[in-house]
TrEMBL record:
Domain annotation Chalcone isomerase: ranges: 36-197
Lineage: Bacteria, Pseudomonadati, Pseudomonadota, Gammaproteobacteria, Chromatiales
InterPro entries per record: Chalcone_isomerase, Chalcone_isomerase_3-sand, Chalcone_isomerase_sf
Protein name from the UniProt record: Chalcone isomerase domain-containing protein
Pfam families: Chalcone_3
A single MF term (Gene Ontology): intramolecular lyase activity
Originating organism: Spiribacter salinus M19-40
Length: 201
C-alpha cells in the first residue's frame, strides 16, 4: 500500500516547528536574557502596552562581603538618565534574593532610605501609601523574586514570584520608592544605581 504524501500545509507546519525548535536551542536568540550573579533577566519586556528595554543589572551587597540580591531595571528605550524618575512612564525593578530575609528587614531597609531621602513634609504625604505597600511584603528565601511594575495612572504593582500581591497608586509615590535605588544624590548603593542605569542616555 502506498503511503499518502503530506500536503504542502503539513510540510509548512513541520518546517515551522523545526525552525522554532532550532531557535530555542540557540542561546541568545530566543532566550534573550542576561545573567547577573546567577540570576537571569530578560533583555526586553512589555508593560502597560509599551515595550521596555533592560537598562542594566547589578547586585546589592551587605558590608561588602555578602551579595544580598541581584536586580534588573527596565525603562522605555532611549530614556535619558535625568528622566528615569521624573518622566511619568512605565518602569520595572526586578529583584532576586540569594538569602533568607524577613519582610521586617526588607521594610526597615526601605524605610531607613526613605527617611534619608525625603523631607519631613514629603514623607508625611506619602506615609499611608508606603505603609500599604509595605504591608504587601512577605519573607523571602533564596531564589524568590519581587517585581515592582509602575504603570502611569495605575501605580506600582508588586509581584512575588510572578504572582500579583497588590497595587499602590500615585506617581509621586512611585518616584519616591524607585528613588531608594535610583536617586542621584543618596541611593541605597551608588554602584548598584549606576549599573541599573547603565543603558540610559
Amino acid at each position: 500500500m502506498m503511503r499518502r504524501l503530506r500536503t504542502p500545509e503539513r510540510w509548512r507546519q513541520a518546517l515551522l516547528t523545526a525552525i522554532v525548535s532550532g531557535l530555542l536551542a540557540l542561546p541568545g536568540i530566543a532566550l534573550a536574557t542576561v545573567e547577573e550573579n546567577g540570576a537571569t533577566f530578560e533583555t526586553s519586556i512589555e508593560l502597560g502596552g509599551e515595550n521596555l528595554a533592560l537598562s542594566g543589572t547589578g547586585v546589592a551587597k551587605y558590608r561588602v562581603v555578602f551579595t544580598v540580591y541581584a536586580a534588573a531595571f527596565y525603562v522605555p528605550p532611549q530614556t535619558a538618565r535625568a528622566e528615569v524618575l521624573e518622566a511619568d512612564t512605565p518602569r520595572r525593578l526586578e529583584i532576586e534574593y540569594f538569602h533568607d530575609i524577613s519582610s521586617e528587614d526588607i521594610i526597615e531597609a526601605a524605610n531607613t532610605k526613605l527617611d534619608d531621602q525625603l523631607a519631613a513634609d514629603e514623607h508625611a504625604q506619602l506615609e499611608s501609601q508606603v505603609e500599604r505597600f509595605h504591608a504587601l511584603f512577605t519573607d523571602v528565601s533564596p531564589g524568590d523574586r519581587y517585581r515592582m511594575d509602575y504603570t502611569p495612572s495605575e501605580g506600582i504593582e508588586l509581584r512575588f514570584n510572578g504572582e500579583p500581591v497588590g497595587t499602590v497608586e500615585g506617581g509621586d509615590f512611585a518616584r519616591a520608592y524607585f528613588a531608594i535605588w535610583l536617586d542621584e544624590k543618596d541611593p541605597l548603593s551608588s554602584t548598584l544605581r549606576d549599573n541599573l542605569l547603565a543603558g540610559t542616555e
